[in-house]
Amino acid sequence: MGKDSRKLIGWIFIILGIISIAYFISLNFFGGAVSFAFVWLITGILSVGFGLDRLNPNLSVLDKTSHKLSIALLVVVILGMIILAVLEGIIIHSANKYDNNVPDYAIILGAGLQGKEMSKSLLYRMKEGLTFAESNPEVKIIVSGGQGKGEDITEASAMKQYLLNHGINESMIIVEDKSTNTAENFKFSKDKLKGIDNRDDIKLTVITNGFHMFRSKMLGERCGFEIYRQPADTYEPMIPNFYLREAFALIKSYFFDKVM
Hints:
Elements: H1 3-31, H2 38-55, H3 67-94, E1 105-109, E2 113-114, E3 117-118, H4 120-135, E4 140-144, H5 155-165, E5 173-176, H6 182-194, E6 203-209, H7 213-222, E7 226-232, H8 239-256
Parallel strand pairs: 1-4, 1-6, 4-5, 6-7
Antiparallel strand pairs: 2-3
Helix pairs in contact: 1-2, 3-8, 6-7
Transmembrane segments: 7-25, 31-50, 71-92
Keywords: Membrane, Transmembrane, Transmembrane helix
InterPro entries: Cell_Envelope_Assoc, DUF218, Rossmann-like_a/b/a_fold
């Protein structure tokens, strides 16, 4: 590789690394403690390090690495990028899919609180849930979410109060307040419904952010529900973070979240 090409690649990675680090800082500034944000910091540091390595050929660590190891690392990186691209395509494709079917129930999936205050993701879900409730007043709404670290109350309690504050009758709200992840949202909600509805083919509209919809539908169907989709918006500054995180969450859920 020529000296000019090395420098060009080096500067490209340094610029990308700086952008990644700046995004990490902005996530923490605008979004508070955002899960997965640390990945942008690590990626930025590695990118800047690689760029500096390319700019200093006399000190290059990579040039001292064996050719076979370099090829192996390159293959791993390329395969990883291909897998990531495929997963992101699947997630993005599902993010804006709406099903207009009338369900037996709807479920709004929890998305974190800071104390008693809803995260922006959860607030978007609640706004979409309110729109659904107003358009389908005969359909009961399950609010699903337990209490996690940094939360003063359960997510379900905050969600229920939001609906009550916006005029939804308490009799139309079913509270599931034990779950700590998406798989449990469906499992514990199914357990909750057993005392209300013993059918095996319950039709359930899922209300969650678009980036979360494909995995939610997959897990809901594993739990035996017929799933209809009503995706909510995502807070724009967090879109890159949430879509990247979701790809890894999808891999984890596909192999390990057995919710039947």
